[in-house]
Amino acid sequence: xxxxxxxxxxxxxxxxxxxxxxxxxxxxxxxxxxxxxxxxxxxxxxxxxxxxxxxxxxxxxxxxxxxxxxxxxxxxxxxxxxxxxxxxxxxxxxxxxxxxxxxxxxxxxxxxxxxxxxxxxxxxxxxxxxxxxxxxxxxxxxxxxxxxxxxxxxxxxxxxxxxxxxxxxxxxxxxxxxxxxxxxxxxxxxxxxxxxxxxxxxxxxxxxxxxxxxxxxxxxxxxxxxxxxxxxxxxxxxxxxxxxxxxxxxxxxxxxxxxxxxxxxxxxxxxxxxxxxxxxxxxxxxxxxxxxxxxxxxxxxxxxxxxxxxxxxxxxx
Length: 317
Fold this sequence. Notes:
The protein is α/β, with parallel strands linked by helices. The protein folds into 2 domains: 2-120, NAD(P)-binding Rossmann-like Domain (Rossmann fold, 3-Layer(aba) Sandwich), CATH 3.40.50; 126-268, Dihydrodipicolinate Reductase, domain 2 (2-Layer Sandwich), CATH 3.30.360.10. It is 34% helix and 26% strand. It is built from 9 helices and 14 strands. The protein has helices spanning 10-19, 35-45, 54-58, 75-82, 99-112, 126-137, 171-187, 275-286, 297-315; strands at residues 2-6, 26-31, 49-51, 65-68, 89-92, 116-119, 143-151, 193-201, 204-213, 219-225, 234-238, 241-245, 253-258, 261-266. An 8-stranded mixed beta sheet has the order 8-9-10-7-11-12-13-14, covered by helices on one side. A 6-stranded parallel beta sheet has the order 3-2-1-4-5-6, with helices on both faces. Strand 13 and strand 14 (261-266) form a beta hairpin. Helix 5 runs antiparallel to helix 9 (297-315) and helix 7 (171-187) packs across helix 9 (297-315). The longest helix is centred in the last third of the chain and has 19 residues, at 297-315.
């Protein structure tokens, strides 16, 4: 299928490498407000066409699917401009800056009858298909607790958008969505109770932690931030053992600990890993679906709502 990119920044660069692994998929056109950067991007990746507006790109008859790769602070605006063309859209995570923005995007997708999916690439790695099957099998019993940390050290620099509120900065919304999404995947619902704390600077969370309770009694501890390197792993405590997932945001293995023994499950993949979400989008589009069962609209809404609650706690008063 033929893709059109809205945005040519860092995330667009990273996902481009995945298209080399998918011979039936190609990027044929792009749009960026930065003309020089757009032309350089097209030159590096040998993309034949670039446009001066989102509307022109979306209207290209040789583009089948749109990928919204701009910063999340402008996702709603850019989605509203792209959706009129009636084409399937993959929107980089987080889908919106709030639950309300996410709901607006879902409503528009429903009204236009188009496919829409949040690009939470972690969901589509093979190890998580294996994990879903493991949980469904009952081998480990009921899941009780999830601990997941996605933190890395990045010196404070107010010129970078990650540290600027007006540009959608903040660790939990941009990176903490990974551990949050894992907890929601394991327990199958939105958290019913959230306690959270953060280290804030200029109304931006530099690091944060949250304790989550779920309706079935499950609990999760999630951390994310720009202060301090973590192992970026996740542990799931079950009734009959545990599962440890190293590098859980792009994993190729898991370790089952049960009855005093360890079992390593390997699910290797070719770099960079974005190919799995691309394949999911194309599969859904080919089957005429409007949303993916692996990353539903409702789940995008509830993730945004949980993030809203954390930020409400951190900024109240």
